[in-house]
Amino acid sequence: MATLHARTRTLLRRLHLWLGLILGLLFSVIGLTGSALVFYTAIDAGLHPAIRVAHAAPDLDRALATGRARWNDPSGKWTLEVTGDGGAIPARYYPVAAGHGDHQMVWFSPDGTRILRAEPWGGYLMSWVYELHMQLLAGDVGLQIVGWSGVAMLALLVTGVIAWWPRGSWVKALAFKRDAAPIRRLYDLHKLPGIASMGLLAVLVATGVLLALPMLVTAIFAPATAVAPKPVGGVGQVTVARAIAVAHHALPDGRVVFIDMPNARDLPIRVRLQVPGDPHDRFPGSYVFVDRTSGQVLALHDVRRFGTGTTLASWIRTLHDGTVGGLATRVLAIILGFVPSILFATGLAHWLSRWRAKRSFQPKK
């Protein structure tokens, strides 16, 4: 049994080593870009003074009209964001209504009369960092690579802990041996950050996997999905202001965050709201679908009505981006993003030291 246990630990150490060598650089890139994205909207605003304007009541309908005067694909869609800070109005323009790929990011003046800034998603620094973090700049293929690599990264973390697990004194196992040989100090510099951060890193990696591979979310949690209903038809055109009023009437305790305004009349308006108990303030999970012409509520998707699976799924993003506990956990998420780089650097240095030492003891032919 002891021999089997020793062989298992040896196997796990080798698996941990090779997973680290193969995935370490990717893990580092994802960690560092994740740290940069914790406050990415604030960083982006700091890099673009043009969108820092005096606060005023936002005129979303005027902004929509200004946007459509410049971009107005009949099958396109506008998404207006309600920030609540009274500054510039952020918006997204999708040339194809159902698409989630290439789109234009637009910032309007609060009165909606001027376009302060317009850039394609992925064409400016913070959106490029976002795409690198989520998709390795490789679209859907990159998203799959990130997702399944994350599964391997979880195995990397677990095998590291199992291979380290002390068989004797925990005090000695957790100590940093300052007077030890350099190769031993490298091991301690690799071991201690890994043990200290393993649990939180596992949460970040696991939630990242679920964000990259939504089919796993469906398989594990079976959350209810917000399905757009067919419109009832009619005449006229519902304004943004009226759609918001209708949504507020349907969910009086909800806070409007996004409004999807399709150009086509045969698609409904979708208002996205945060209701009490929904943990994410920017990407909540409740929706009100409003008929494009009549203003009737076509469907209501309230995350509080759909059971445990939907509730658990709603926590994935806020656990991943650090917003779960406010400023303190966001700062912690930034710090954790640097840990994979530390682990990769110290692990690689330790392996190279062992490899050089082993070569030096080999007899010359």
From TrEMBL:
Keywords: Membrane, Transmembrane, Transmembrane helix. The chain crosses the membrane at residues 17-43, 145-165, 194-222, 331-352. It comes from the Bacteria. This is PepSY-associated TM helix domain-containing protein.
